[in-house]
Specification:
single chain; alpha/beta; 6 helices
Length: 126
């Protein structure tokens, strides 16, 4: 019985990990999915003002991860909206992704590699 419980927990953990990986998108897929999006969505740039000055994903809105009111603003977002999030390289967006999921956001997609990967892929910025 104990072995069945352990195997069940391991399978559940693996499914959870696979689901999270599926929500981390490489730059081309991130862009393509946004272009095909039919639901209400927002693109959130989690970088600082200085980083944003170097270019953003088109139509993104800044929500500075290091801002004093970041957690408060994050909690005020509509949980029914689909969110596409990114930072410089993936650290801040990974933490934000986990927080959003724990707060009950269902549709969150993270740009794998962040803005560094976006620019390396030669994709447009504004």
């Amino acid at each position: 019985m104990r072995n069945v419980l352990i195997i069940s927990l391991l399978l559940l953990f693996n499914v959870a990990c696979i689901a999270q990986v599926a929500e981390k998108l490489p730059p081309e897929q991130f862009k393509s999915q946004i272009e095909k999006e039919t639901n209400t969505y927002k693109i959130l740039d989690l970088r600082t003002d200085e980083e944003v000055e170097q270019g953003m994903v088109p139509t993104a809105e800044q929500l500075n991860f290091y801002g004093e009111d970041f957690e408060e603003l994050l909690g005020q977002l509509d949980k029914k909206t689909t969110y596409y999030i990114y930072c410089r390289s993936g650290g801040r967006s990974g933490k934000t992704f986990a927080t959003m999921k724990s707060l009950g956001f269902d549709n969150v997609y993270e740009l794998d590699g962040g803005m560094n990967a976006w620019k390396s892929a030669g994709l447009e910025t504004e």
